[in-house]
User: Fold these one by one.
Assistant:
Number 1:
Amino acid sequence: MTASVPPLPAAAVGQPVLMNPGPVVLDDRVRAALAGPDLCHREPEFSDLLTRIRHKTTLVAGGGPAHTSVLLTGSGTSAVEAAIASAVPADGGLLVLDNGHYGERFAHIAAAHGIRAHRLELGWGTPLDTDLIERALAADPGLTHVGVVHHETSTGMLNDVAAVARIAHAHGREVIVDAVSSVGAERIAPAEDGVDWLAGSANKCLEGAPGLAFVTATRAAFEALAGRPRRTYYLDLHRHYTAQEKGLPAFTPGIPACYAFEAALDLALAEGREARHARYAALAGQLRAGLEALGLELLLPPAQRAVGLTALRLPASAGYEELHRRLRAAGFVIYRAQERLAADHWRLSTMGRMTSADIDRFLAALADILRDS
């Protein structure tokens, strides 16, 4: 297993600091792994690589002995869509917990596959209301699954998926969790928290290259998908599971991204989730303290924030385009807020191989811009 080392400064690899929530700045060892040898995906070498990645992914995702993971070539959205399209039965329905853009995305995916959904629209940046969830499930026995986002990246909010799972299981329902922006850094463990289907990405907090996603669930859950009508061909989880259990991908995978993902998984396992969470939390705390010292207003109260992203109001003296242009010139890539927050908010990620020195340099550059505006 690769030994744990401090994160590398972005300057060491000659690129800007990516403060967007994925893709992230990679460790040099992950980036170097992308240049692995050309390989046929039907050869034993790839079968061994796929088996190792599935096992390590399950460990990082908090799965237990009964769990496994299915690897997909695609963005994190592909894993969320695969879980929804595959897990909800033909006569089932999905309760969508919507308190941001990615919660709303559950409803859009369900509609695309003809899945009946009840959208519990709470409002962006509004904490989940467990009483409303309880009442919605009690009122509609046909809602067989609950869809919830762990880290709602549109606002930076961290949702309590364990509480959702307890309510859902009390009513005999399953939970599908979008953990794309949280797995690897935030505490989440399907075996302990009752998450039935966890969708994640190789990128973001796992610090792999973009292009791979995964779904973690019990082997029994994957096997129970057999015989169900297939809503999708490429994203059918049972198709991928049965192929990967034989050591084969169902379709041609992104092999360079697989090399990089194994390197990233080794680093994540060596560092440990608690240590990575602490590293991200320290960076986020440093960033947030500096932003508030500059007089900027953060979107959420501290208890609701994930460690990987901070949403904040735009300063009165500078619009997003000016901030983006001038910070990009200073070596930092920032991120616009989405939809209803886009007019007056922006976002800053602390995911990836970022350092305290990077945060100091960013805050100094931002202070210069604000003074000049």
Note: Residues 99 and 126 are 6 Å apart (CA to CA).
Number 2:
Amino acid sequence: MATNAKTRKAARYAVPVAVAGVAAATVAMVPAFANSGSPDLPKVTAQQLIEKVAASDVQQLSGSAKISTDLGLPALASGLLGGGGIAGGSANPEDKIAQLANGTHTVRVAADGPDRQKLTFVDGKDEYSLIHNGADVWGYDSKANEVWHEKDTEGAAQGKDQQGKDHKKTADRRGGASPQQLAQDILKAAGPTTDVSVGDTAQVAGRDAYQLVLKPKHGGSTVGSVKIAVDAKNGVPLRVQLLAAEGGKPIVDAGFTKVDFAKPSADTFAFTAPKGAKVSEGSDHAPGGRGKEFKGLESFPGLDALTGGAGLDGGKGGETKVLGEGWSTIARIDTGAGKSLKDIENDKNAPKEAKQFLDSLGGKVTGKFGEGRVFKTRLVNALITDDGKVYVGAVTKDALVKAADANK
């Protein structure tokens, strides 16, 4: 039961809206856009560059970054994720991070060790700030004049007990994992299905950098490569680009436009709720252990109607199976839907949200599994079969159909 629960939780993050997690992770490591120029640097091997990242211990920095995300989402899903700016609406950071799955955003960042980080998303004259200062975490939406607050007593105690040496858990809980740790996680996750090499040198935010290139060894993935620009002096990842196998501009292109590794002033992380602001208290222990993250396709009422209330996580009694490995991983989710796609398509009394959702999907596909429809983005694709199963992953439509045929 425990293993099945873990598998279901992992699959939940694999649904199309989970591409927001890609954007969130990229912002968390605050990487950046490259400037022109290819500096002449000493030759290094991929292993040496990985070791350089692992050995980096930079915990203090400040600067500006941009993140640009082009997932090729259908108009309906794009609207659900918030095509507008970051500012406005709830001050809960989970609501804001989901919006990073669409468009281009400017970010100011500051960090001083495991207990103090600040991210400010700038949308014109409006701003949204996420501040971690010791035992307090604050989210502030200037446009809505709303404040979100949470006590980080676990993180503060851990920082004190471990004297700053073991702060990954605290940082991850805040969505602000260090650049070093996140880069190591990416490399670890790559595993044996990945070719790792050193690409051309680059300049990022005026700093010389090597580029580590990760490519899937086998076909079928929507990902062409991942490029991580690494500071030639201190080993800090400065930029991440996620490139599509189909070509075109990057799916995600994020990184520093300006960076300084000096210690930020203490008042950078100070925050007091403005007079008249609405303040709400957050909690790490939301029902189901998932809070409100990824409020998009999964919570769309059309999908709820389509799957008989089961959603993409299988609902009550739903089953999830992980197929394949590495870049070709596919989650097979049995939603237990009471109606087929055809039933809903032909039902005059079906909820309009369900039919809107069907219209937002791509063309129909057929195979040994039967019939279905494909929800397509440039990164994550999902095949929803007529009998209520969902196959989803960062793989091509053909790979999904092949998986459905083999696991019908």
Note: The longest helix spans residues 179-190.
